[in-house]
Amino acid sequence: MDNKKILLKAENLCRIDPVNKVKLVKSASCMIHQGDRIVLSGSSGSGKSVFCRMLALLDQPDQGSITFNGQLVRQADIPHYRSAVAYIRQRPVLLRGTVQENLMFPFALHINRERRFNPEKIARFLAMIDKPDTFLQKNAADLSGGERQLVCLLRVLQLDPVILLLDEPTSALDMDMAMQVELLINKWMQLHDETRAYVWISHDEQQKKRVGQQVWHMNAGVLTTGVA
Ligand SMILES: Nc1ncnc2c1ncn2[C@@H]1O[C@H](COP(=O)(O)OP(=O)(O)OP(=O)(O)O)[C@@H](O)[C@H]1O
């Protein structure tokens, strides 16, 4: 692992509740290398989501810095950074329309103006999880919770993220669907020869063993990394 390239380095990240000024995350530092499969555990309310949203720069840190691919991330870099370090939430939000329309949506955004929807790429992902191409024509409103999460993941994966921050992506799913999500993420890691990485928040002990090669722990806003 030591000779793997460092993708992300966060130093002394703090997040303070703007209302009551309590520190939700206290001076968290971490490194994410290529190929890292990290589980983030910790009791409910300990600050795991706050930390991951901050790492994705969806919420601004009150202190600290993030270096990505050796470059300090500045304000102007944030839109690009967010597509490279992508946060996946527990309950996916889909738009009205078909699965394909949902997958095409990111390409209508200014930030992705140089990119084009790639049906072959999506077909490859669908094949990985044994979904037929007809899945693309399904109405998003008719999808199961698990299928919605798969579409949400495909929508992110097609944009070629480098790090996924997975915030309990399967906690609302049954075992079969959870395994499909795990399979898709695993295939994505293999597809890129373990040059990508993820941080996966989970409360499921069996899942933690399946998806985690290292464990980080959050306790009352204090992050500990490197716990075996
Ligand atoms: N936007 C916010 N403003 C103020 N407080 C917040 C905000 N988001 C979360 N918190 C608080 O921060 C603390 C940590 O919440 P967080 O969602 O990160 O916990 P968690 O470890 O992810 O829990 P769970 O495992 O239940 O999802 C909680 O006390 C929560 O109420």
UniProtKB/TrEMBL annotation:
Protein name (Swiss-Prot/TrEMBL):
ABC transporter ATP-binding protein
User: Recorded GO terms, molecular function?
Assistant: ATP binding; ATP hydrolysis activity
Residue ranges occupied by any ABC transporter domain in the UniProt entry: 8-227
- What are the entry keywords? ATP-binding, Cell membrane, Membrane, Nucleotide-binding
Signal peptide annotation: none
Q: Which PANTHER family match?
A: ABC TRANSPORT PROTEIN ATP-BINDING COMPONENT-RELATED, ABC TRANSPORTER DOMAIN-CONTAINING PROTEIN
Q: Which organism is it from?
A: Advenella faeciporci
The protein's matches in Gene3D superfamilies, at most eight in alphabetical order, are given as: P-loop containing nucleotide triphosphate hydrolases
